[in-house]
Amino acid sequence: MKPINVGLLGIGTVGGGTHAVLTRNQEEITRRAGRPIQIVAVADRNVERARELVGADVTVTDDAFSLVKDPNIDIIVELIGGYTTALDLVMMAIENGKHVVTANKALLAVHGNEIFAAAQRKGVMVAFEAAVAGGIPIIKALREGLSANRIQWLAGIINGTTNFILSEMRDKGLSFETVLKEAQRLGYAEADPTFDIEGIDAAHKATLMASIAFGIPVQFDKAHVEGISSLDAIDIKYAEQLGYRIKLLGIAKRQVNGVELRVHPTLIPTKRLIANVEGAMNAVLVQGDAVGATLYYGKGAGAEPTASAVIADLVDVTRLATADPQNRVPHLAFQPDQLSDLPILPLEEVETACYLRLRALDKPGVLADVTRILADLNISIEAMIQNEPAEGEDHADVVLLTHVAREKDINAAIHKIEALQSIHGKVTRIRMEALNG
Ligand code: HSE
User: Fold this and answer.
1) Is the CB–ligand 1 distance for residue 301 below 6 Å?
2) Which end of the chain is more exposed for a tag (fewer CB within 10 A), N or C?
């Protein structure tokens, strides 16, 4: 059977892994796909290294645009990353009638609507399993495996770098800055870790999952994004005392009037399986009305785990390449003319329980003032701890867990609590999720 020809844009970590796994498992992959999948050309800035990796039979160039124009190439695998050149290359590949496989979550979360529309017009596929949670087949699960369900919510640990940092902070009682430096020294965190630690990478992934789960256009610009850089180790300790762990979660939740789409540090009960996902591992919990809760766990990054997802897409595209475009799996799981205009809700409308930590003067009536503010806003308290002031200090940490309340009311309460004479400094707020299906 005639092989399907692949042009690889970028042969760094994931590209190298893709070449290695395709070569190693060639026979089994061909038996699955129905025809050989072969990398015929590679574009990379480092031509010499690329040549060493792929050998003499594969065309190697530093001109990625030559691959997207090459009539001999059926599928472009985009592993360059970023929003600029990658966008031009993907759009040009589509215009030239090529299918695209990409691991580029940033590109799809920001430009996905125009990319999918162009692919629809040209009758080509854009597959992106590797863009979310690396080797975990979460896109396939949401798009196909769960297609009987009305998906109610999903919550994921979808950034390994931040999960590694949070695990180390908890295990060793270290500060964020100390662990970040160590993670960079060990090569776990990028030299510029902004996308990871500020929650942007997780928000890209949550945006894509929300679109597939609820059949809405990609709307990264409406996501609430908060990272872990201002998280204090003391809050991890207090959370632990109360039976919770703090994880950076990407959350997408269907409400009657819209969709919640948010990334932020979150307290989750320690007894949930997902709370025990440690180190750089990823996991996504999905709640469907028919199936109930399902949990997907695995490596969210790395050469071969991510290559596993890239190659699964290559197999899918190969199998469906000759099918009528109308009968293929829609890019966002729902037929393109059936996407919903359900809005992304503003954060003020979101309802969650909250962890609040305040430094209160240790004298009669202070807690009464705080609880009165909460009661007046109809915010109910679920649990509370207060430590004795440290020696020589007159303020003590008070930690309150609230029942579910509207963000707008919690904001108003925090504002009023911070204005009390007896409260020192800012109130720390961390949202909570029960994740109990
Ligand atoms: N930087 C990501 C992470 C992996 O730390 O999980 C690629 O998406």
Assistant:
1) yes
2) N
- Tens digit of each residue's pLDDT (9 = 90 or more) over 249-260: 999 999 999 999
Quick one: which atom of ligand 1 is closest to the CA of 301? 4
Instruction: Look at ligand 1, atom 4, and give the residue with the nearest C-alpha.
Output: 301
Confidence of residue 214 (pLDDT cuts 50, 70, 90): very high
Which structure tokens are listed for 53? 């990796």
Annotated catalytic residue 140: no
98, 140, 205, 416: the active-site residue = 205
Residues 367-408: pLDDT tens digits?
A: 999 999 999 999 999 999 998 888 888 899 999 999 999 999
What is the fold, at CATH topology level, of the domain defined by 140-299? Answer: Dihydrodipicolinate Reductase; domain 2 (3.30.360)
- The structural architecture, per CATH, of the domain 348-432 is 2-Layer Sandwich (3.30)
Question: 106 C-alpha vs ligand 1 centroid, how far in Å?
Answer: 11
Distance CA 371, CA 379 (A): 9
| Residue ranges covered by each domain of the chain | 4-137+303-338, 140-299, 348-432
The pTM for the full model equals 0.97
Residue 17 CB partners (closer than 8 Å, separation 6+)? 302, 303, 304, 305, 306, 307
87 exposure class (CB count in 10 Å sphere: 0-12, 13-18, 19+): middle
Q: Please provide the average confidence, as pLDDT, over all residues in the chain.
A: 96
- Indicate whether residue 161 lines ligand 1 (CB < 6 A): yes
- The CATH number of 4-137+303-338, from 3.30.565.10, 3.40.50.720, 1.10.3720.10, 2.40.10.120, is 3.40.50.720
